[in-house]
Amino acid sequence: MADYIVGDIQGCLSGLKALLSKVDFNARTDTLYAVGDLIGRGPEALDTLAYLYSLGDNFKTVLGNHDLNLLAIRCGARRAKKADKLDEVIASPDFDKYCDWLRQKPLAMLLKRDILLTHAGLYPAWSFDKAMALSTEISEVLQSQQWQLMVNSMYDDKPNIWDDGLSGNDRQRFIINAFTRMRFLEKDARLEFNCKTKPSDAPKSLLPWFNMQNPNMTATQKVVFGHWAALNGETDTEQFFALDTGFVWGGSMTLLCIDTMKRLHS
Ligand SMILES: [Mn+2]
C-alpha cells in the first residue's frame, strides 16, 4: 500500500516499467500518481496509455501540455506533428476512449492535505484552495459538451497575468497555461513562455515561478510538478519538488515516494 508520484513519462513505457520494478510496484495495492505529459515525443505512446489505463483507480494523473495536445488533435484544433510520435494513438480504435479518459483528469490534485500536484506548478498569486477551485472550473468544461470549444481557443499566450475578473476563454486559457506551460515569470508575475533554460542561464529579468514569493502558501505545504526538464530535479528548496528529469531526452525518470518524500531515479 505505497503511493508514488512519477515525473514526465512522455510515452516512455519501458523507462516507467523499469522504475516501478525497482520499488516492486504492485498494481493492485499501490497507487501511482503522475505529473502529466503521459505521452508526447516518446516512442511508446499507445502502449503507455494502455498500461496506465489498465491500472484503473490505482493510477491518477493531472494533465500536462502534451496530454492537452492530444485532445486538441482529437477536436481538430491542432495537427499532429511527427515529432510528437502520436500517430499510433491517433490511428488506434481506442483513440476516443483515451481522449474521454484524459478529459476526466484534473489540472491540479491535492494529496495528504498539503501536497499539491500539477504539471507546471502553482502560480504565485494562488493559494492551494484557489488552485483547486480553478482546476475544478476547467474540469467542469472539459467534461461537458463544450470541451471542444475550450480546447479550440486555448492556444495563445495572452492574457499573461492573472486577474480575478478574467472571464470566458481568456480566463480558461490563463488557468490552463499557468498549470501546464509555466516556467518563468517577469517580476510583475507575467507568464513568460519563450525561455526554457535552467534558471542560471535565463535573462536576469526572469524568475522561476517557485522563486516568486507566494503569500498564500504555508511552511508545510509542498508543490510537486514536472514539465521543466532543464531543472534536472533541482529547485534548491524543500517546498517545491521538480520531477521532470528528462528521460525522453536521454536523462532519467524520477519516482517520488509520498510517505518518505524520497526520490528514486531510473
Ligand atoms: Mn510539459
Describe this structure in words.
This protein is an alpha/beta fold and 266 residues long. The protein has a single domain (3-265), classed as Purple Acid Phosphatase, chain A, domain 2, CATH 3.60.21.10. Helix content is 29%, strand content 16%. The strands form three sheets. A five-stranded mixed sheet has the order 3-2-1-11-12, covered by helices on one side. A four-stranded mixed sheet has the order 4-5-9-10, covered by helices on one side. Strands 7-6-8 form a three-stranded antiparallel sheet, with no helix packed on it. Helix 3 crosses helix 5 (95-103). The structure holds manganese (II) ion (MN). The site of manganese (II) ion (MN) has 6 residues, from helix 3.
Give a quick precis of the structure.
The protein is of the alpha/beta class and 266 residues long. It is built from eight helices and twelve strands.
